[in-house]
Amino acid sequence: MPTFAPAALARTSAALALAAALAGCGNDPNPAPLRRARADGRPWIVSYRALGDDPRSLDPQVSYDTLGHAVISLLYDTPLEYQPFRTDPYELQPCLLDAMPERTRDARGGDLYTLRLKRGLKFTDDPCFAATAGRGREIVAADLAYAFQRIADPAVECPVLSVLQEPLPGLGEAYAAAKKTGRFDYDRPIAGVEIVDRYTLRLRLAKPYPQILYWLAMPFTAPVPREAVEYYDGKPHGGSAREQFRFHPVGTGAFRLAEWRRGRLLRLERHPGYAATRFPTDGWSAAEEARFRPLAGKPLPLIDEIQFSIIRESIPRWLLFRQGWLDSSGVSKDVFGSVLDAARELTPAFRARGFHLHRDANPATFYLVFNMTDPILGKNRKLRQAIACAYDRDLANEIFFNGIFLNAEQIVPPGVFGHQADLKSPWLRHDLALARRLLAEAGWPEGRDPATGRPLELTLDTTVDDPESRQMAEFEKGQIEQLGIRVRVIENLWARQQDKVDGGHFQIVTGGWQADYPDPENFFMLFAGRNAPPRGSNHSRYANPEFDRLFDQMRVMDNTPERRRIVRRLSAILNEDCPVVLLTHPVAYALNQPWAPRVTSNPLVANAAKYVAVDTAMRDRLRREWNRAPTWPAWAAAGALVALVAGAFLWSARHDA
Question: What is the domain class of 364-585 according to CATH?
């Protein structure tokens, strides 16, 4: 009988056989869908997306960053939401509520808002609902009230408490009582939050505060089941610890959490009992009539599953999009020139693929944040002004944003009431001579301590999401070091950076603010003294009595000429005190695949995925075309395998002879 010689021959043969097989296979990097078909037999539809990192928390009363809200808004519905198409002006509409809140004037000068829930809406199924054997129970007014109680609980550390406690009586008092006793009493109602009946809640505001409607469209006021918070507390039960509630959402939204593999995948699944909203019946442009009219009034969501791949770097995200494995992508600076022509339109190659291009001037502002409690930066305004003057924003815009961003001269972005195009800051023009003069007046001539000759040393914290973040940090370092100051860059993962910012453990940090709602109060609240963490998002910890007085006056006003005048004064105060170096207002270019064109045109709609429709037949066809494997590797591998086996027989025959 023939004897095959070395074992290596067998291993080589197996490897070549595997290579031949793989050469003809697809290269889909996405996990298999949860199901192949719905219960009614229709195809199971998946949307493939990417996140730059894991969310820090999925607790709606805690998370206050765009990454977290991108997921939370799909898991938790809010009393109100934004109409997905209307932006001039932005328009709110009922979500969990049966109608818009009824507003009446209180005899004491405040406002009453009556909120009536839709009936029959339910939380997602979860073991925390012991009374219903794990079936999600109906949402009631007590769940809305519980959300406001959690806002006031010191243990929750809700970042908007300081904003809402001003107009809503009882929040501040409940917070103070819990701080004193060390325990929040959830059996004691909040004074300004009244449960009228099973489905009706009334908010009693101490003074007019029209922005309360915007807060009802944010996750902070999303109803949460008390059973879930108490069940998922991270403590040992029966010998093992349950996951913390912030990682185990039990919500009311269009989707529920199906799987979360940290650093790899976050998977959402359609909430089977979802009935809160349907596709709008109007609001889109005439050009979109043929596309959206067939969807009007349909139950949401239109898809069954969302796969968020956790991909920290922009180039891998882009390559996956190019191959069709992601349904949407931003246009980063690395690919901008190949995607868009000089007129900022798609190049012929990308038009031929059928990609959809979107340009959005986001209501947001980017900046560098100074820690105003830092002994070096916080007490030296001229030092902060010098750093601002040294920063070349035009150069940064060209290098990192292809020249498309808008230089910021005020914290309020274009499109939001109070933005005034003629308002300019004296410290935001690139002027190194002025910067050096200011630095000398600040007591650091040429960036050195005149007593010791040692250079001033500062730290700059940044995230390490992708190489672009590192490059930006190095650029910012170089801008400051032009003055003779030494800067040490500290790189952090997203969650670690947020912890340092909240704790005040930094000197300079990169930052930005995307509008929660289209009102100047939402931007100026970032600098109100009482809004320092953990009670708010004043991460600079800026405090100015004049600013706080004008802010309190402005925030409750309607949009009048007098309010515009106060907004201008507030902007001027910030520009002079320089708690941040204003950089840009972002302009975003994004692409969608031809099988999943974008639906919403409102940048404030965080739960846009529930409106998305996917043409799965088109996706399957185009993916095959774009990723057709060449046949020569398979033939080459097969040929090599045949030659190897034939040689083995000849070798064996000679040695057996």
Answer: alpha beta
Residue with tokens 């808002």: 113
Q: How far is CA 380 from CA 419, 443, 543, in A?
A: 28, 9, 14
Q: What is the pTM of this model?
A: 0.79
- Give residue 247's identity as a one-letter amino acid code: F
Interval 420-469: pLDDT, tens = 999 999 999 999 999 999 999 999 999 999 999 999 999 999 987 667 78
Give residue-wise pLDDT tens across range 217-249. 999 999 999 999 999 988 888 888 889 999 999
Beta pairing, strands 193-197 & 236-237: unpaired
In CATH terms, is domain 46-305+606-611 a member of 2.40.50.140?
A: no
Q: Which position has the token pair 């809004």?
A: 531
Contact 327, 306 (CB under 8 A): no
- Closest Cα to residue 193, out of 180, 174, 179? 174
The whole-angstrom separation of Cα 439 and Cα 51 is 41
Tokens encoding 149: 């109680």
Is the Cβ–Cβ distance between 562 and 588 less than 8 Å?
no
Cβ atoms of 85 and 224 within 8 Å: the answer is no
Q: Which residue has the tokens 């995200």?
A: 317
Residue 587: name the closest of 363, 423, 347, 313 by CA: 363
Task: Let me know how many helices (H) and strands (E) the chain has, helices first.
Answer: 21, 21
Cβ–Cβ under 8 Å, residues 638 and 20: yes
Question: Measuring CA to CA, which residue among 478, 500, 503 is closest to residue 488?
Answer: 478
Taking the C-alpha atoms of residue 253 and residue 145, their distance in angstroms, rounded to an integer, is: 18
